[in-house]
């Protein structure tokens, strides 16, 4: 491809030695366009993950009422800068929507009762606008997630996921307990995946992106919310398997799929269950039992639609 043909493609950005080589020869090296696009996509993906991480931080800390004004302002400013870098490819109306939501977020004080809802809405808008990878390409596997946990998580988070692993006392910041309801109520599998990909600044939690496939990390991300009822996982899977197909179809039509479950915290999922599963289809199960069936049964069943 000639350089003059290349500059008419606004989606292509050349950098470093590739740009020098192209300018000097007038010809783009074979395979370089695909390689540069791939590098650009990786960079954009990293920026989006960082953007999502800041939003997740705001959502979790506002839920737990731990968000102070200076901390909130710092995170919102970070979100604004990352959004400026990543929104250039979006349609103008979508950019305007995100900018308006960001302004609303800026004007909302941590002490306001609607801070968490404002951040949560913004998170969903960001995920939709950028089509962030919110659905696993393969069915999550509880066994794969368990193996990863035993290999790399148990030493800090403990065998039961209670944050009391053999190394926990030696860490500067205590590992999260996956059994504490407040933690899971403000966590969604997509948030957990994002932490596994990026690590957690200010803690000993590293990034695992270079060490495991997305299938392995998704499997662990869906398994972690199951820790409070891990001993019931088998029975929850059996309950989902025995659920009649007509009820499952109703749930699918109301939006139950992998992307939906990946992006919902336990609080959001419980609210959805309460609104969308009629009493006649409840099987006598409580909202919490339904939550466990969807988290521990439906997710690992290979029956759910992707989106």
CATH fold naming of the largest domain: Cytochrome Bc1 Complex, Chain D, domain 2
Our count of domains comes out at 4
Beta-strand share of residues: under 5%
Summarize the amount of helix as a percent range: 55-70%
CATH class bucket of the largest domain: Mainly Alpha
Q: Can you count the beta strands?
A: 0
Look at the structure and give the mean pLDDT: 82
Write the layout of secondary structure elements.
Elements: H1 3-6, H2 16-25, H3 32-63, H4 69-86, H5 92-107, H6 115-130, H7 142-152, H8 154-157, H9 181-185, H10 189-198, H11 214-223, H12 233-242, H13 245-253, H14 258-263, H15 266-276, H16 287-298
Helix pairs in contact: 3-4, 3-6, 3-10, 5-6, 7-11, 10-11, 12-16, 15-16
Q: What do you see in this structure?
A:
The protein has 307 residues and is mainly α. The protein contains 16 helices and no strands. The chain has 4 domains: 3-30, no CATH class; 47-130; 142-227, Cytochrome Bc1 Complex, Chain D, domain 2, CATH 1.10.760.10; 231-298. It has helices spanning 3-6, 16-25, 32-63, 69-86, 92-107, 115-130, 142-152, 154-157, 181-185, 189-198, 214-223, 233-242, 245-253, 258-263, 266-276, 287-298. It is globular and about 50 Å long.
Brief write-up:
This protein folds into 4 domains: 3-30, no CATH class; 47-130; 142-227, Cytochrome Bc1 Complex, Chain D, domain 2 (Orthogonal Bundle), CATH 1.10.760.10; 231-298. The protein is built from 16 helices and no strands.
Keywords:
307 residues, mainly alpha, Cytochrome Bc1 Complex, Chain D, domain 2, 4 domains, 16 helices, globular, disordered N terminus
């Amino acid at each position: 491809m000639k350089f003059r043909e290349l500059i008419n493609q606004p989606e292509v950005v050349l950098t470093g030695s590739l740009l020098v080589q192209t300018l000097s020869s007038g010809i783009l090296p074979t395979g370089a366009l695909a390689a540069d696009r791939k590098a650009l996509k990786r960079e954009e993906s990293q920026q989006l993950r960082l953007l999502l991480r800041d939003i997740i931080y705001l959502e979790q800390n506002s839920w737990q009422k731990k968000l102070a004004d200076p901390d909130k302002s710092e995170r919102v400013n970070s979100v604004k800068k990352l959004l400026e870098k990543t929104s250039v490819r979006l349609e103008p109306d979508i950019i305007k929507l995100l900018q308006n939501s960001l302004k609303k977020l800026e004007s909302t004080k941590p002490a306001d009762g609607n801070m968490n809802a404002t951040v949560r809405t913004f998170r969903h808008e960001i995920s939709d606008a950028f089509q962030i990878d919110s659905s696993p390409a393969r069915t999550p596997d509880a066994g794969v997630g368990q193996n990863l946990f035993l290999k790399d998580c148990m030493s800090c988070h403990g065998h039961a996921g209670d944050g009391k692993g053999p190394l926990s006392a030696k860490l500067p910041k205590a590992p999260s307990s996956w059994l504490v309801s407040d933690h899971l109520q403000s966590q969604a599998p997509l948030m957990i995946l994002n932490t596994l990909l990026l690590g957690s600044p200010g803690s000993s939690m590293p990034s695992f992106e270079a060490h495991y496939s997305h299938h392995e990390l998704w499997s662990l991300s869906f398994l972690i919310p199951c820790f409070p009822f891990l001993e019931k996982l088998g029975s929850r899977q059996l309950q989902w398997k025995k659920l009649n197909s007509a009820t499952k179809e109703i749930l699918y039509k109301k939006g139950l799929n992998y992307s939906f479950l990946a992006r919902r915290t336990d609080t959001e999922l419980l609210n959805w269950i309460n609104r969308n599963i009629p009493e006649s289809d409840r099987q006598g199960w409580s909202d919490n039992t339904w939550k466990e069936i969807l988290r521990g049964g439906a997710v690992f069943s290979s029956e759910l639609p992707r989106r």
